Structures are given as structure tokens and as C-alpha cells.
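TASK: fixed-backbone design
INPUT:
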């Protein structure tokens, strides 16, 4: 009995491996996004803590030099927080691009899988038809042999 063989199976396997690799890459990018979100939160928390401490020290009274120093430090902390925002936006953009690649790869693998299913169905139908024809031929041969033996 003949066995079904899909000629594009190597292509399907290659596409599936590519899809799997893209999924791994997306996971790594998502881990980077999560880590960057933590860094961003920490930067803004540091800035908020420093701002609160500055307000408290102003209320207690501080020199003009110390106030200028604190203002300069606040600007540096705010710049760091904005840099973390920019990096987070960049990583999120990367993740979106990777998702788009995955969607495209899924479409390709799905279409090949669907084609394989169609070909499998066609093969099974042809096989069933061939088996039916073989049974019909066998039955006809038996009837013919029985008719010759009787006559």
C-alpha cells in the first residue's frame, strides 16, 4: 500500500523552524521590555524620592549653593528617566516588528499546512477509490470464475 508523502514537507519544516526561532526572539525581546520597564520605574522612583527629599530640605532651609546642586542633580535624574523612556519605546517597537514577522510566518506555515491537509484528503480519496476498484475487480473475477465453473 502506498504511503502519503507531501513534497513540500521540507519547506514546511523549514518555515516551522523559522517561526519557532522568531518566537524565541520575541520572548527575549519581551524579557528585555520587562527589564527596561523595571529600570524605568526605578529611575522615576529615584527622581520622585530625590524631589521629595529636596522639598523637605527646602522646608528646613538650605543654602543657595546646595539648592543649585540639588536642582542640577534633579535634572540629571530626569534626563536618565527620559533616556529609560526612550529605550523602552525602542524595545517596544522591536517587539512590535517581531510580532509582525511572526504573523507573516504563521500565515506562511498555515497555508502550507492547509495545502498538506488538502493533498492528504485527495490522496486518501484516491486510495479509497483504488481499493474500491480492486474489490470490484476481485468480485467480478470471482463471479466470472463461478460462472465458468457452473457452466
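OUTPUT:
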Amino acid at each position: 500500500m502506498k504511503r502519503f508523502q507531501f513534497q513540500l514537507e521540507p519547506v514546511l519544516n523549514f518555515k516551522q523552524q523559522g517561526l519557532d526561532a522568531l518566537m524565541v526572539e520575541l520572548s527575549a525581546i519581551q524579557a528585555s521590555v520587562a527589564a527596561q520597564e523595571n529600570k524605568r520605574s526605578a529611575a522615576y522612583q529615584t527622581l520622585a524620592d530625590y524631589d521629595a527629599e529636596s522639598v523637605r530640605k527646602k522646608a528646613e532651609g538650605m543654602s543657595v549653593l546646595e539648592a543649585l546642586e540639588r536642582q542640577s542633580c534633579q535634572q540629571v535624574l530626569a534626563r536618565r528617566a527620559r533616556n529609560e523612556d526612550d529605550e523602552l519605546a525602542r524595545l517596544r517597537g522591536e517587539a512590535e516588528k517581531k510580532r509582525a514577522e511572526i504573523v507573516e510566518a504563521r500565515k506562511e506555515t498555515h497555508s502550507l499546512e492547509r495545502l498538506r491537509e488538502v493533498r492528504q484528503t485527495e490522496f486518501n480519496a484516491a486510495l479509497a477509490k483504488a481499493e474500491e476498484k480492486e474489490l470490484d475487480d476481485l468480485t467480478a473475477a470471482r463471479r466470472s470464475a463461478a460462472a465458468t465453473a457452473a457452466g
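COMMENT: The mean pLDDT is 94.
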